[in-house]
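A.,

Following up on our hallway conversation. Structure tokens first:
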């Protein structure tokens, strides 16, 4: 057997090893994307609860929910770090998947993008609601301060007895 036949066989086994590695990478990528979909699904449910809590006057449940969201966000970040190296070679990995698995993975990626879009939009609306609420509270507090100053000014007229009213002016 000459060197070129052995070399061809070695290259063939290397090519098969690369294909096997890409297939495993594809399966791992699909699992990670499925995990992202699961986590974003939980996050979207919390966003719906958040919308309700934003309108309440009690910030404690909202803060508790935000802590839950933080945990999910950290889990999503961990998944994203795992996906990162695989997504760099996505085109090659994608080719090694069966058509049904490829289609499934692409559907999951679209779902992740849709979740992300919906969550960002809902958070933007909640931010606007909170800003309006904050402005209303500031205006209300400002009104109370102004009323308090006016009442203090009227209550401190000099030279006039505190018990005197308009009926006493004729005296």
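Then the amino acids I'd put at each of the 171 positions:
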């Amino acid at each position: 057997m000459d060197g070129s036949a052995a070399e061809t066989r070695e290259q063939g086994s290397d090519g098969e090893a690369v294909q096997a590695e890409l297939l495993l990478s594809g399966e791992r990528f699909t699992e990670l994307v499925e995990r992202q979909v699961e986590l974003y699904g939980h996050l979207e449910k919390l966003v719906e609860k958040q919308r309700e809590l934003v309108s309440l006057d009690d910030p404690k449940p909202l803060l508790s929910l935000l802590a839950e969201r933080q945990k999910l966000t950290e889990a999503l970040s961990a998944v994203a770090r795992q996906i990162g190296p695989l997504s760099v070679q996505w085109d090659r990995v994608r080719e090694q998947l069966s058509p049904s698995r490829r289609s499934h993975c692409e559907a999951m990626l679209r779902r992740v993008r849709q979740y992300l879009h919906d969550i960002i939009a809902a958070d933007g609306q909640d931010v606007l609601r909170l800003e309006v609420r904050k402005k209303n509270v500031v205006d209300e507090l400002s009104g109370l301060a102004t009323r308090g100053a006016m009442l203090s000014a009227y209550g401190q007229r000099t030279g006039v007895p505190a018990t005197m009213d308009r009926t006493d002016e004729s005296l």
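Residues 15-152 form a domain with the Methane Monooxygenase Hydroxylase; Chain G, domain 1 fold (CATH 1.20.58). Curious whether your intuition agrees with the design.

B.
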